[in-house]
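Summary for the steering committee. One of the milestones for this cycle was to obtain a three-dimensional model of the protein with MRU bound, which we needed before selecting residues for the alanine scan. The sequence and ligand used are listed below.
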Amino acid sequence: MNVNGTHHRTIWMPEPGIVRIIDQRRLPWAFEVIDLKSVAEVAHAIRDMAVRGAGLIGATAGYGMALAAGEARTWEELEALAQSLVVTRPTAVNLAWAVRRQLDALRQHPPEDWKGVAKREAEEIADEDAAFCSRLGTHGLEVIRSLAAKKPDGVVNVLTHCNAGWLAFVDHGSSTAPIYAAHDAGVPVHVWVDETRPRNQGARLTAWELAQHGVPHTVIADNTGGHLMQHGLVDLVITGADRVTRNGDAANKIGTYLKALAARDNGVPFYVALPSSTFDWSIADGVKNIPIEQRGGEEVAWMEGIDSGGILRNVRVIPQTSPVANYAFDVTPARLITGLITERGVLAADEMALCAAFSDCVPASARQ
Ligand code: MRU
């Protein structure tokens, strides 16, 4: 994706032993890249959300394993480093998926080959993420095109939540990929950007990305979507996902479920866009079984922004003594999802459709 006219991925390895990332904690105030030189630094970057978003967390874990391959002297040390990455964030399944993929690749080779093997695998994971997101953009474009054809003014209003844009992946994004594809193809789109408290990934990151690409958009307070839908101002919702079960239940940033309920009540199509690395085929019921990350209360109690003098400040927005709960994700049941936009096409959010499209998906009826 372009930043001030220059193409960037969100992560890359400029030389062996160095993982370079865009520090998302600094956006949109500053565009800064930083280098991670150890597994501990990678783990900290994921936990502290210098990198975030399911696909990018997976790609970062892939590169983290490339560093682990240089640090570990034995298989036991490698597994311990792998585990230190897996525990950083629990909900996005891409993290464990990428670490497992690296361990499966490394298991076939002697320790002296690990560095080279893991670097290649990390690059494959990143390239695949970018390619799959580009493909799901092509499929999602057809959804937007068909809605545009039915609108007198042709402008399709898309509501999105959080940031499942290119910053949440290696490139293109999931929920934004169809939007960029439509905009680039000349299909007029306008995006309602949920601010997405507590960390404001929508207001800070999605709005910044869309502005960089020249896509018309409007930032709204989180609770605005239902009102807009009641007044015919939303044609479809597209969100990303952090984990989708084989029944099609989708975990995404907290507040997504409420948007899906409002969409159902107002007959607005609700799509979830994801590459296949975000499926967790081992789970059927997402509400019961997807682990939901709870983060520190300071993310709710404090907000960061720049004041009128351009100074970056952190301000407390709740009383000193009030307790805080910070659930980072919720699960939207498959019954509220119109379709899953994947690299293999737009699929129904159910086990039959998913297991027909992906061989790793084994339906309950075929399980022992
Ligand atoms: O906590 P984050 O920022 O890592 O959350 C992830 C998200 O940005 C969203 O839930 C997103 O919609 C899915 S990630 C592709």
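Key point for the committee: The chain has twelve helices and 18 strands.
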